[in-house]
Amino acid sequence: MELIRGAHNLEQRHRPCVATIGTFDGIHRGHQAVIEALHAAGRRLQRPATVILFEPQPREFFTPDRAPGRITRLRDKLRILESLGVERTLCLRFDRRLAREPAEDFMRRLLIDALDVRFLMVGDDFRFGHRRRGDFSMLRSAAQAFGFELERMPTVHDGDSRVSSTRVREALEAGDLATAERLLGHRLRITGRVAHGEALGRELGWPTANIRFGPHPPPMRGIFNVRVHGLGEPRPGVASLGTRPTVNGVETLLETYLLDFSGDLYGRPIEVEFLTRQRGEERFDDLDALKEQIAADVAAARTWFVDHGYLTANSAG
User: Fold this and answer.
1) Count of alpha carbons within 13 angstroms of residue 92, beta-carbon side
2) CB under 8 Å, gap of 24 or more: what pairs does 152-156 form?
3) Which of 35, 56, 120, 155 is deepest in the core (most CB within 10 A)?
4) What pLDDT was estimated at residue 185?
5) CA 233, CA 228: separation in Å to the nearest integer?
6) Smallest Cα–Cα separation from 166: which of 196, 129, 125?
7) What letters, b where the CB count within 10 A reaches 16 and e where it falls short, cover 232-259?
């Protein structure tokens, strides 16, 4: 998959195309239906499928303190989109200039002139341009004027409710990974390079591989049984995702202890696959109590991995 960072990097070979535009947080089953429809249009019109998304996401730009946690980081979105066969992803930087651009200008500059869109799919509630003046009705008029096809994103239901990023976040916040997996159509995975931390885990006897998130961490907290990919065979582990309240932490970290592993992982890319949540995030009275709880979490993880066939009883020690 080709990643195009910014409209200024679009070239003549990128047009014409079939496209969809949105935030695509989670790449859930609804998003996957969009990609399938986009591929169908691309085959029919013999044009490449292009996904247009924003970084940061618009709500993160306008209301950073109230923006919801991210289900998927940009690198994870790109990984999933590539696995779905998307040929190109155009990542637009959402900044003050883009936020102030009139909807008509955005539509003409990007969709018509830069991409020569022949088929466009957006959601019913998609808004764009300064003060969110652009909507489906405006796009429909443009489609008639410039001769491209326009369709609404298909609705995918789970039970009586629509599959949405909001529902996925609610499931993750509640620690309901089974429901999140059903809505996503895949298990949640978080990728990143192992970063240096404060070595607290090592001091407590449980060294961890740490991934940082920056200002937009995932929407869940707690202790999870995980598998770590990128180190040869997938390795079982137990992960803490949160702010470490016992040591008055502020930054959200994903700290993963790998069972029966030793080695230097700093700087290495890994992918953490979330299997189930053991418990929520807690604050302990002191480090001794924390250390005792970590030992219990690791023991519980070993039992879970044996019970679910990831480890044998002999290897569980």
Assistant:
1) 24
2) 152/121, 152/122, 152/123, 152/124, 153/20, 153/22, 153/30, 153/33, 153/34, 153/37, 153/121, 153/122, 153/123, 153/124, 154/30, 154/33, 154/34, 154/37, 155/30, 156/29, 156/30, 156/33
3) 120
4) 96
5) 9
6) 125
7) eeebbbbbbbbbbebeeeeebbbbbbbb
In angstroms, rounded to a whole number, what is the distance separating the alpha carbons of residues 290 and 4? 45
Nearest CA to 153 among 37, 290, 268?
Answer: 37
Tokens of 108: 């003409």
Q: CA-to-CA distance for 221 and 240, rounded, in angstroms?
A: 8
Helix orientation angle between 177-184 and 165-173, rounded to the nearest 10 degrees? 160
Cis status, amide bond into 16, omega within 30 of 0: yes
- The model's pLDDT over 58-69, given as tens digits with 9 standing for 90+, comes to 999 999 989 999
Of the candidates 210, 224, 214, the one whose C-alpha atom is nearest the C-alpha of residue 279 is 224
Choose among 188, 223, 210, 213: nearest CA to 25: 188
Model confidence pLDDT, tens digit, residues 254-286: 999 999 988 888 899 999 999 999 999 988 888
